[in-house]
From TrEMBL:
Designated name of the protein: Apoptogenic protein 1, mitochondrial
Keyword Nucleus: no
Record carries keyword DNA damage: no
InterPro entries the record matches: COA8
Membrane topology listed for this record: Peripheral membrane protein
Location of the protein in the cell: Mitochondrion inner membrane
GO annotation terms (biological process): intrinsic apoptotic signaling pathway
Entry similarity comment: Belongs to the COA8 family.
Single GO cellular component term: mitochondrial inner membrane
Superkingdom of this protein's organism: Eukaryota
Pfam families (alphabetical): COA8
PANTHER family tied to this protein: APOPTOGENIC PROTEIN 1, MITOCHONDRIAL (PTHR31107), CYTOCHROME C OXIDASE ASSEMBLY FACTOR 8 (PTHR31107:SF2)
Length: 188
C-alpha cells in the first residue's frame, strides 16, 4: 500500500483526505507519519494496518505513537504493546518536565546576564556555555537515574519482543501441514 514515500489516501466512508509519508529514516517497518489532514481530525485505518506516528510534541520533542492492535492479539502481544505505551508515557513525562525546567532556567540566566539599563544583546556561545555546564552539573544525578531506568525498561521491552517473536514463529511452524503430519505420525 505504501510503496511510494508520499501517498494521498481518501477515506471513502468519511471523505477525509490524509497525507501519509513513510520517512526514510524510520527503523520501524510499517510506521507511517501523519501530516495535516485537509478536512478534519478523523483518521480511519484498519486496526492491523500501521503504527501511527504524530508530529513532535512542542515541549518534550517526542513524537506520539499510536500502536496498532492486532485483531487476534495474544496476551503476550498485548502486554508488549501496553509496556511500550507505558514506557513512551514515562519518557514523555520526563522530557516535558526536564525541558520546561531547562527553558525556565535558561531564560533566567539570560535575564541575569543582561545588565539593567543596558541595551539587550544576544549572549555569545561562550557565555551560554557557562549555563549549559552548570545545568548539566546540577542535573547529573537526574540524568543518571533516567538513563538507568530507560535501559531497564528497554531491556524489558526487548525480552518481551523476543518472546512475542518466538510465540509467533513457533505458531507458524506448528500450523504448517508438514509438521502436523509429522506430529500425527509420531504420536501413533
Amino acid at each position: 500500500m505504501l510503496k511510494n514515500y508520499r501517498l494521498l489516501k481518501v477515506c471513502a466512508s468519511r471523505r477525509h483526505i490524509l497525507n501519509f509519508c513513510r520517512n526514510k529514516s524510520t527503523r520501524v517497518d510499517g510506521a507511517v507519519f501523519l501530516e495535516k489532514g485537509h478536512e478534519g481530525p478523523i483518521i480511519e485505518l484498519l486496526p492491523e494496518e500501521v503504527d501511527l506516528i504524530g508530529p513532535p510534541d512542542p515541549i518534550s520533542n517526542l513524537r506520539p505513537i499510536i500502536r496498532r492492535r492486532f485483531v487476534s492479539e495474544t496476551k503476550l502481544q498485548e502486554e508488549l504493546r501496553q509496556k511500550q505505551d507505558a514506557t513512551h508515557q514515562w519518557n514523555q513525562k520526563f522530557w516535558s518536565i526536564h525541558n520546561t525546567k531547562f527553558i525556565k532556567e535558561k531564560q533566567k540566566f539570560i535575564d541575569d546576564q543582561q545588565k539593567a539599563g543596558q541595551e539587550k544583546h544576544q549572549l555569545t556561545a561562550e557565555e551560554m556555555s557557562e549555563f549549559y555546564k552548570r545545568f548539566l552539573d546540577e542535573n547529573w544525578k537526574i540524568h543518571m537515574d533516567y538513563n538507568f531506568q530507560w535501559y531497564k525498561k528497554n531491556f524489558t521491552l526487548l525480552f518481551l519482543a523476543l518472546r512475542v517473536s518466538i510465540e509467533k514463529n513457533v505458531g507458524k511452524i506448528f500450523r504448517n501441514e508438514y509438521y502436523l503430519d509429522l506430529i500425527h505420525l509420531y504420536s501413533i
